[in-house]
Structures are given as structure tokens and as C-alpha cells.
Amino acid sequence: MPHGDITHIDIPVSDLEAAKSFYSGLFGWQISAPPGFEDYPMWQAPNQVSGGGLAPRSEGFTQPRSYVEVDSIEEILAKVTESGGSVIMEKSPITDTSWWAIFADPDGNHVGLYEGTTEVG
């Protein structure tokens, strides 16, 4: 996906099995945990483009979070702070070829960043 595209949406859940049943029944999403990500079931919409994950709900993760694909997480995080936002989580690896980070905009909305390529399955 090109720089700036929304690439992924995480939905915080307290019961993974119940959430898988709920969302697959409601929207027809295909939901499965790829190898190496067994505790993180991924959903795929029928359009085969939209997708994301069902992630454990936590104190700092209570609302769905969109992830935007970027060419450079470091450059975007620098622009975030220059523009009045703040870094919630610095760049961290997902795999050997992909990374993520989280920032807050000036209104406090959390947005995820994604850089790289993740091969799952």
C-alpha cells in the first residue's frame, strides 16, 4: 500500500473467541491467527482489502485504532511532535521487515503507524 493509506484496524476485545464469533457472524469477516501470531487473530473483510486484528483490551487500548502505512516512521514521528502531537510508542519491530509505532494527535486521538512488509502464512 502507498504512503498514507489506512492499512489495518485493531479492535480491542476482552474475549478473543467471543469477538471472533461476533464479528464473523455480523460482517462475514474471515478471522484466523496466522503462524507466529497465535494470540492475535486477524480479520479480513469480504472485499479482501480491509483488515486488521482483534487485540487484547488494555488500560491504554480501549478504542479501535487505525494504522496508516508510511515510508518512514521516524520521519512521521518527528513531524508529529513538530505539529503538536505526541509519541505514545516509539518504532518497534513486528517482524524482521516491518515496524509499528503509535502517536497521539493534538486532540488526543491515537493513530498507529506501519512501515515495511509483513509476510504471514
Automatic annotation (TrEMBL):
Pfam families: Glyoxalase (PF00903). PROSITE patterns: VOC (PS51819). It comes from the Bacteria. Residues 5-116 form the VOC domain. This is VOC domain-containing protein. It comes from Marihabitans asiaticum. The lineage of its organism: Bacteria, Bacillati, Actinomycetota, Actinomycetes, Micrococcales.
